[in-house]
Write the structure tokens for this entry.
Amino acid sequence: MNADEKKKKLLIKRIGYLGPEATFSHLVVKKRFPNDLHQSLSSIEDIIEFVKEEAAGEQRIGLIPIENSTGGMILESVDLLLEEDFHLYIQEELSLNVELALIGRHGEEIKEIYSHPTPLFYCRKWIKSRFPLAKINKTASTSEAAQIVAQTPGSAALSTRLASEIYKLDILEFPVLEGSLNLTQFFVLGRFPYPGETAETTLVFSVKDEPGSLCSFLEPFRDEKLNIKRIVSRPIPGKLNTYLFLFSIQAGKESLHLANALQRAEKFSLWLKSLGSYPVRETFNV
């Protein structure tokens, strides 16, 4: 163990997550880092700034959502990862099999349902069939939905079982839409690259605005038989029809095939930066 690794072991680990308490981000942090300190933050940008800030005696890392199997990419996260002054590293990818609970109070007629827009969209047919007359209200998080329901008679929230405990509500149904897979993936961010064995790498790149430029960049990965996990394009502010790409490939830093592909692909890029190679952990269930 070198001096830097010894120093890290002496630091208190504090994990920033998208709060408030009882969100799915909070559940993932509790599952993955049960013995460390947890810091609730109000936005994804706040999480990134939290990790950037040095704090005496602390090792800070942050958890941000990146993709949902129902709602797609979390574009706020993507846009922040693509910023030129983003200098953190992805240290892990985590996944959560999201199982929603309908929480409220037994014996009350449900006239209003609260939740984050993604669960409301995911469960829209179930809500329509079970509560056709209920008013639907969007909230910033599933935890906020539970907070509101705790103070609002005749209402229910699509939230978590943990939220029902915190806000003293009854679990009216769990799981909602049993047997239907609803995965959310998260990145763990830190100030340093992950030091151990890795399974995946995420890059940021741009290419020339000319025919075939993106194809030319991607061909080396095909030739090296590497699988692309995700590729997302986002417009560069102030530059019409010009894009940055977030690109995840299923190969770690140890892969010679990845090294060969990157060497060739770089020739076709205007800008290329690695956000890190990292392990992909097993999916958590709640």
